[in-house]
Amino acid sequence: MFNRIRRLRQVAAIASISSLVAGCGVLSSDSSQDKGPIMVGTTAAPSTLDPAASWDSSWELFRNIYQTLLSYPSGATTPEADAAENCRFTDRTNRTFRCQLRDGLKFSDGHALDAKAVKHSIDRIRKINVNGGPAGLLGSLERVQVLNDREVAFQLDKADATFPFVLATPAMSIVDPAEYPADKLREDDEIVGSGPYTLQGYDEGKQSELVKYADYKGYAARKNEAVTIRYYQDSPTMVAALRAKKLDVAFRGLAAKDIVDIQANDKDQLQMIEGSGTEINYLVFNPKDPTAGKAAVRKAIAQVVDRAAIAHKVYKDTVEPLYSMVPKGLTGHTTGFFDDYGDPSVSKARKILTGAGVQAPVPLTLWYTSDRYGSATKAEFEELKTQLEKSRLFRITLKSRPWKTYVTGYQKGEYPVFGRGWFPDFPDADNFIAPFVGDQNALGTPYVTPRITETLLPSSRAQSDRANVVKDFEEAQRILVDDARLLPLWQGRQYVAASAEVSGAERALDPSTIMMMGELSRKTSW
């Protein structure tokens, strides 16, 4: 759920476009050891500590405490070796992918991290098969083979040039077989990983305490000794903590009002780092709901919604209207919803409903999460309610839940219409279509569309050169527009607010906009 009209840098990571601190030559180091851990604030608390259960921003924590075979060093646009020493396709058909692990890898409990641990970690994702969990990312995987202690091979049942990107997602975090059961989720609040940091303390919904892992072997820089991540319910509270120097960095969930206010009033104390991103925000319609399941209702809503008003009134133009599930800046982006619906029109929407025999006003309940995407979410849904009811075609009820119970609700199909944001797993159009379609998807609501899942996605995944997949993705988006089961609303940019004493925030976000905490440090001289 983020970016807008501006051009997306391929690394959807933060580019230091505007820094509001005028500084002299600065040296950065891990002087944070003298002042305690780097304090980071966010509104996106983990929903789970087990990678097999998560397809959400729990990944933020996972990236920093677990390892994956491949990952993204700062500035990288394609996956590079992390726990692996090297990885490659060994055939011309993109169906056999082999990795060799680094020598001497160990989990934080002292157990060896070997090829068997990799196989265990991937296999349990599919075996446990959490509804709405990351098993959907492994649709092309046939089996994992242990070749020896340090080598593992992935046999795919179809060509999949995106598979290295999948292995680089935190969902594919490598876990200790002795600590993580093969057939069920780990239920305590403990973590055994091999990443840059260990989890020294965890208070659910409040904070995570990270300490540098001495035996880590991987690419990640660690310019501090420790990081504490604090979880907030809203942006104003988080920004107040930043201004009070209780935080060094705030990101993920900064409200537009707070962003604009910091830019205008805090130039001497805070820096606001702005950059491109590919996060999107959209509505999901439940096809099993008697009202939302009607195509005419969905299309009438698509015809009424004023995205520009949402972007301006609610988000102060820190986001831009989005007319495709594939955001601007990625190969294959289109403007299908604008092409079909144009500007908002009540008369056209009324005609859609009348033509289908649907009587207005249509009663409908819209759900949103109260604590996931920032405090502006409530205002966004209030604006949606205003727009839809002003048309006299809809009677809207708004309801919300905290993220953890919100997820359970949509996975059970409880909501007629609900809001979601999407932080990309990897920067490719595939990742803005594949996760939302098929019998098993990230939304927990099956979306059977054989043309996409059986033809277009397989065709695109056979292409190593992603410039050759435009036609496949354009057709896939045409199907999404015709069905109107997913309604894109806006695309945003990435913002990180940081103390003037902090360095590294401009390098800290990887291409999927996950923060690599090791890049953060305190400046030692001016």
From TrEMBL:
PROSITE patterns: PROKAR_LIPOPROTEIN. Coiled coil: none annotated. GO terms for biological process: peptide transport. Keywords: Lipoprotein, Signal, Transport. SUPFAM superfamilies: Periplasmic binding protein-like II. Residues 80-442 form the Solute-binding protein family domain. GO terms for cellular component: ATP-binding cassette (ABC) transporter complex; cell envelope; periplasmic space. One of its GO terms (molecular function) is peptide transmembrane transporter activity. It comes from the Bacteria. The keyword Signal applies. The keyword Signal applies. Residues 1-22 form the signal peptide. Gene3D superfamilies: Dipeptide-binding Protein, Domain 3, Periplasmic binding protein-like II. Belongs to the bacterial solute-binding protein 5 family. This is Solute binding transport lipoprotein.
